[in-house]
Amino acid sequence: MTPETAPRTTRTYRQRSSQTLAWLFLIAAAVMVVSLLRAWGDNPEPLFLAWLVLGMASAWVVFLRPAVVLDQQGVTLRNLVRNVSIPWPVLSDVEFRWNVRVFAGERGYTAWAVSSQIERPKVSAGGLIGFAGGASSRLGRISALDTEGAPAPGGAKVTSRYVAELIEQTRAEYVAAVADGEISPVADARVRVRWAVPAIVALAVPAVAIVALTVL
């Protein structure tokens, strides 16, 4: 397989402990929104509706959007209102004491999505590029599937230690794959920090509506 035709895969990791509560809140809030809209003609409550929408947006931004995303290019930390993309060539270290913290040189970037929980044995299922295979099979098992919220193998919890070890293992496989000529090196390898515009808009619109309705 040549570097130009090598498939790409993405794995997205997040902890599920807080997501259940967030989804329960979103469902309850959605039911209330529907109830408000049905009774709008007789009893409009725009301020209450704005607060509900802000609560729903906050639940998504704080509990559902954050994730650690691994692909063939590097690591992306999807935090509250910004995304930090760290290519494999500039990734220098990973810590997992409280949260996953990825370093590019001396600069560290913390992942909001994955915190320290119960420790688990070291990763044995492989990363994105290798999946515990040799150099010849390193890319052979990559799928183009985007696995959203990929669980740890065997149903284990997604902890900061698990994700940190997977990041280190996948980076090692990237280095080996580049050395063997199986993939092309990442071009323009530098850290990119971008604002998450959808998250900002989702929070700003109902917040502005609340301020406007309160003042008027």
How would you concisely characterize the structure shown here?
By secondary structure, this protein is of the alpha+beta class. Helices cover 37% and strands 21% of the residues.
Quaternary state of this entry equals single chain
- Estimate the mean pLDDT confidence: 82
Q: Ranges with pLDDT <50 over ≥5 residues?
A: 1-7, 118-125, 130-149
User: What strand order characterises the main sheet?
Assistant: 8-1-2-3-4-9
Count the DSSP helices.
4
What is the CA-CA span between the terminal residues? Answer: 64 Å
| Beta-strand residue percentage | 15-25%
**Number of self-contained structural domains:** 1
What order do the helices and strands come in, and which of them pair?
Elements (H helix, E strand, L loop, with lengths): L9 E4 L3 H22 L7 H19 L2 E5 L2 E5 L3 E6 L3 E5 L3 E6 L2 E9 L30 E2 L12 H20 L12 E4 L1 H19 L1
Parallel strand pairs: 1-8
Antiparallel strand pairs: 1-2, 2-3, 3-4, 4-9, 5-6, 6-7
Helix pairs in contact: 1-2, 2-4
What does the model show?
The structure is a single chain. The chain is α+β, with helices and mostly antiparallel strands and about 220 residues long. The protein has one domain (about 5-215). Helices cover about 35% and strands about 20% of the residues. The chain has helices at about 15-40, 45-65, 160-180, 195-215, and strands at about 10-15, 65-70, 75-80, 80-85, 90-95, 100-105, 105-115, 145, 190-195. The strands form 2 sheets. It has a 6-stranded mixed beta sheet. Strands 5-6-7 form a 3-stranded antiparallel beta sheet, covered by helices on one side. A hairpin with a 3-residue loop joins β5 and β6 (about 100-105). α1 runs antiparallel to α2 (about 45-65) and α2 runs antiparallel to α4 (about 195-215).
